[in-house]
Amino acid sequence: MKDDFSKTLITGAGGMIGSYIDFGIRLTHDQLDITDEKAVFETITKYKPRAIIHLAGATDLKQCEKDPDCAYKVNSIGTYYLALAAREIGAKLIYISTNSVFDGLQSESYKISDIPNPQNAYGRSKYLGELAVRGILENYAIIRTCWIFGGGRGKDKKLVGKIMEKIAQGTPEIQATEDHFGSPTYGKDLVVGIQKILSNEMTGIFHIVNTGVCSRFQEVNEIVKISGSKAIVKPVPATTFGLSADRLHEGLEPHPTLLRPWQDALKEYLNTEW
Q1: What is the pTM of this model?
Q2: Which of 54, 115, 235, 250 could pair covalently with 182 via S-S, beta carbons 3.0-4.6 A apart?
Q3: CA 98, 99, 103: angle at the middle one, nearest 5?
Q4: Domain span holding position 160
């Protein structure tokens, strides 16, 4: 594709990651419901994109557990429809997947060669989406990412946004898990990785995360330090927040030299968007 992204269609463009995409045909959920097969084919046929960046999905882990049918409908079947439509017009499909396709049981970051073994409805529904893409298309990129942050005050409903809210409220002590590890990733940097994959016409499965692995305790400490807050961060076990004591490592081994260290990305994010 080289560097012409104008013929790229983006699903779920109204979300956190989509807020960093300033090119192509940006479609929000209101403009395209990916669970509507007819709408998917009509939309893709209408725009005839050279590439599709598939961001739309059900990503709330707790909600996916409460309503797994919805998770499968959106993340699995919706992705299946898009893969079929992409094949129909010969478009490349870039599917944003997740570290949750792995079980979190090993003590080191997951490599692309590691075998997925999802443990919850969210992870299973996203992995089925991966299988649909791989089974239907040859020209695809599956991008697994982890612990996304970004979007600023309006869109950041995940950990970084919640911690910044606590800091703004003057919360004196903040609890964070010391035995839960992952790869924090700036949504803005993830988009840079996506653009590199498009520009270099890369295909296959990729792990795109900011460099480095940390515990939530370390991540929250970094947030507090950057923000200048006087809050005390208290380390607690994962079970404090109802997380499995077994799923300790959610980190992904990053694609070589693609993204900067997570600390640098977090500092830029907090200094520019908060």
Answers
A1: 0.94
A2: 250
A3: 130
A4: 149-182+212-251+260-273
